[in-house]
């Protein structure tokens, strides 16, 4: 019998599942559909409306998966719409010259990946802020496309691209089948592989990741390259929906992609988020905009409403027990350096243990049983640190309160 044992824990269903942010997004999606049923029943129940809503939501949704990875690193990419334009332009010229659709798509993905590589290299090699780099490259990529295309519109693309944008397969939009396939692939990468775990680790603590032996530069370059390649893939979806492009293609699309990820619970600070949230948020965001358009709402008003909804959606998950506890700790520590020191020390010690747990899980030389025992021991140590910290905090807090009361009593006596 092998000494390496795998510990399997049964997942217990918890009622808190129904209060998770992913489920809140599902409730919002249901609410949007109910509103359309009530206020626009003729259009909503018309043949093809649901397919159109889904296809509308997925025009550029493939880029969501790349943006999730970038946000998990604590970075951002606002050049993706320009990369998509440049990729689409090269794809159009390639197909016009060769009439080879497969080659044209490969060129689009390659151009997108190359643009993403440039972004990642500048950000990681020269330690430049990602937002500054991608703003600059966005102008460069779109400017290059504008110089080449001028005022012309490119429509030299395979006619079957429109099948992706408009047609159904087994009663379900083709774009949805492809979106589900990408969601499964990127979900497995993020939640079941070492690459995904390291993304979370780098996003939570870049310095500790570097000293743990992770090549953070390579990771950033690879993630930005993936993002660029997905922009090249999205060009196919965009063209399939609109049949052609001009230099204004996709302007402002990067904000929609970022909004979907944030709405899906991915933190812009890095290290927090799952694949499921943005997948659901893709349809929430798309259905919301589609519904507002059906109600004949003016374009700028639609932007205003969707912006307000996103802000509210981002704030709601923060208002939980931990948030309230943190607020209490902040205000209660505001007049005592010793109280603040206790909390900061607790936070730092817990981070050290979390990093050690990650290192153990990534150790390929140890057996599963050995790793499980070490991880469980460290988790018990975390609980002990929290317990001792709370005990120290309670003692010091009582001392601070007593000192304040004595001071007030002394001031009152003088009066």
Task: Give the CA-based shape.
Answer: globular
Structural domain tally: 2
Arithmetic mean pLDDT:
84
Low-confidence blocks of residues:
1-11
Name of the CATH architecture of the largest domain: Orthogonal Bundle
Strand content: under 5%
Per CATH, what is the topology of the largest domain? Answer: ABC transporter involved in vitamin B12 uptake, BtuC
The number of helices is 18
Q: What is the total tally of β strands?
A: 2
**What is the C-alpha radius of gyration, as a whole number of Å?**
26 Å
Briefly note the structural class of the backbone: mainly alpha
How is the biggest beta sheet arranged?
2 strands, antiparallel
Which class of the largest domain in CATH terms?
Mainly Alpha
Q: Percent helix among the residues?
A: over 70%
Helix-strand sequence: HHHHHHHHEEHHHHHHHHHH
Distance between the termini: 82 Å
Widest sheet, order of strands: 1-2
Q: What does the model show?
A:
This protein is mainly alpha-helical and 415 residues long. It has two domains: 17-318, Orthogonal Bundle (ABC transporter involved in vitamin B12 uptake, BtuC), CATH 1.10.3470; 321-414. It is built from 18 helices and two strands. It has helices spanning 21-39, 41-44, 49-57, 63-72, 80-98, 101-125, 130-149, 161-166, 174-192, 194-204, 206-211, 216-242, 253-263, 276-294, 299-315, 321-333, 337-362, 368-414; strands at residues 168-169, 172-173. Strands 1-2 form a two-stranded antiparallel ribbon. The longest helix is centred in the C-terminal third of the chain and has 47 residues, at 368-414.
List its traits.
mainly alpha, 2 domains, two-stranded antiparallel sheet, globular, disordered N terminus
């Amino acid at each position: 019998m092998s000494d390496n044992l795998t510990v399997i824990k049964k997942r217990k269903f918890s009622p808190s599942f129904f209060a998770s942010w992913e489920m809140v997004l599902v409730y919002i999606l249901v609410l949007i559909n109910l509103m359309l049923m009530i206020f626009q029943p003729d259009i909503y129940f018309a043949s093809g409306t649901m397919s159109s809503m889904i296809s509308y939501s997925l025009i550029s949704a493939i880029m969501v998966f790349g943006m999730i990875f970038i946000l998990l690193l604590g970075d951002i990419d606002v050049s993706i719409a320009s990369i998509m334009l440049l990729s689409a332009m090269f794809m159009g010229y390639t197909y016009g010259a060769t009439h080879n659709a497969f080659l044209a798509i490969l060129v689009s993905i390659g151009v997108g990946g190359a643009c993403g590589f440039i972004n990642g290299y500048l950000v990681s090699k020269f330690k430049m802020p990602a937002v500054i780099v991608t703003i600059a490259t966005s102008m460069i990529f779109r400017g290059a496309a504008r110089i080449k295309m001028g005022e012309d519109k490119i429509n030299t693309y395979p006619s079957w691209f429109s099948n992706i944008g408009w047609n159904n397969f087994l009663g379900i939009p083709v774009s949805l089948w492809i979106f589900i396939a990408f969601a499964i692939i990127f979900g497995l990468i993020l939640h079941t592989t070492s690459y995904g775990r390291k993304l979370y680790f780098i996003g939570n603590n870049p310095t500790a990741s570097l000293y743990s032996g992770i090549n953070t530069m390579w990771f950033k370059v690879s993630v930005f390259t993936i993002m660029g390649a997905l922009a090249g893939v999205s060009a196919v979806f965009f063209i399939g929906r609109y049949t052609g492009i001009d230099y204004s293609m996709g302007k402002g699309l990067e904000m929609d992609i970022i909004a979907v990820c944030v709405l899906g619970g991915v933190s812009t600070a890095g290290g927090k988020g799952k694949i499921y949230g943005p997948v659901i948020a893709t349809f929430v965001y798309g259905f919301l905009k589609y519904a507002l358009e059906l109600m004949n709402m003016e374009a700028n008003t639609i932007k205003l409403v969707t912006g307000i909804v996103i802000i509210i959606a981002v704030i709601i998950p923060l208002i939980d027990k931990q948030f309230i506890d943190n607020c209490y700790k902040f205000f209660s520590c505001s007049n005592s350096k010793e109280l603040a020191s206790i909390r900061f020390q607790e936070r730092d010690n817990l981070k050290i243990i979390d990093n050690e747990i990650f290192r153990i899980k990534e150790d390929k030389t140890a057996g599963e049983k050995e790793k499980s025992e070490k991880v469980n021991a460290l988790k018990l140590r975390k609980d002990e640190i929290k317990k001792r910290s709370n005990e120290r905090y309670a003692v010091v807090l009582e001392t601070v309160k007593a000192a304040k009361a004595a001071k007030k009593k002394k001031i009152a006596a003088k009066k």
